[in-house]
Amino acid sequence: MSRKLISAALFLAAMAAAGSATAQMFRPPPFMGGVPGVAQFQAIQMQRHQARTLLYREALEELRKNPAAADVPECPVGQDAKGGQCLARAKPEAAAPAAPQLRRRFAVLVGNNAYPAPIPPLETPIADVSRIAGVLQTRFGFEVRVIKDAGKASIIEALNKVAAEAGPDDSVLLMYAGHGYLLDEINMGYWIPVDGSVKTAQGWISNGDISKLLSAIRARQLILISDSCYSGSLTKEQKVTPGKEINPEEVLKQRSVLVLSSGDDEPVSDEGKEGHSIFAWNLIKTLRSTGGITPGTQVWNSVRTGVSKEYPQRPQYGAVVSAGHAEGGDFLFQMPR
Asked: The pTM is what?
């Protein structure tokens, strides 16, 4: 075991011995002395998860008593979704033209670093989404919007705005990088915005609400990239596997709603390369080398291979059927002609 890995283990043990107040204020050091083995990595990540569970214990108890504590109401019928106090409603999908083409491509990327104590701050999300936004803009022609250190209302408002603006012929990419949590008892994952609290879940965003927001975005090409702990729960509805040949013209005729997550139902590494998380670094590398029309399954397979070579972390790719994904669909990373 490397000296850095030993120091991380000792640090976590010391936190546990010192009690919850001390544990809440610190973040363990990264693995910089070498790649840990699978068992060692999982042990360290489990200790981190236990520390986070202790940190969020009051909010988690609230969710156990009331699983809807974090939910946001849908906007009243006929009312525009302005602000972040309600969720945009899904609208009927227009029929695809005989020869569909992408009209607009736009991306909204949220990166959260500055969490106030006792939630530990993160180091890479803003750098991750900023760099990925640059690749999407210069290589794939996306209009990009980067939102830094966003609270719950700001995230909901941004996604409501996408729902209001996106048409069926648009390609939409969303990304979230920040803290997350999975509550096993109710099998629900959450994003934790920068104004999220350890005492109440009302400032968290549930996967259920994320799915509703995806339903409200009418674009037939839609992908969500989630780089947070336990983000794999978003991919569970229907797994998508690589290797299947696709016809881009046929794919564009139907609705495709995909999620690419940095891991499965597990903690994910805070460490990485060149100032980026290990997931984001591999995604950037893959997107920069992608040409022509590349299905999301191929992008995921490349990212998954790169991540798993260095960490026992398993990026996932799945379809959100509840948001209208059609069988055989996929997200197409397509360079402008």
From this structure: 0.85
Q: What's the CA dihedral at 32, 35, 37, 43 to 10 degrees? A: 30
Which tokens go with 61? 């108890």
In whole angstroms, what is the distance from residue 297 CA to residue 280 CA? 16
Number of domain units in the chain: 2
Q: Within this chain, do residues 181 and 293 fall inside the same structural domain, yes or no?
A: yes
CA dist., res. 171 & res. 334, Å (int): 10
DSSP 8-class letter at 71: -
Question: In terms of residues, how long is the chain?
Answer: 337
Residues of the domain holding 164: 64-334
pLDDT tens track, the chain, 337 positions = 333 333 344 334 434 433 333 333 333 344 444 445 566 766 777 787 788 889 999 999 999 999 999 999 999 887 777 778 899 988 776 556 555 677 899 999 999 999 999 999 999 999 999 999 999 999 999 999 999 999 999 999 999 999 999 999 999 999 999 999 988 888 889 999 999 999 999 999 999 999 999 999 999 999 999 998 766 677 887 888 776 678 888 899 899 999 999 876 545 555 567 789 989 999 999 999 988 899 999 999 999 999 988 877 889 999 999 899 998 899 999 988 7
Q: Do 281 and 217 lie in a common domain? A: yes
Q: What are phi and psi of 317, to 5 degrees?
A: -140, 125
Pairing type for strands 171-177 and 105-111 reads parallel
Shared domain check, 231 and 274 = yes
Residue 208: CATH number of its domain: 3.40.50.1460
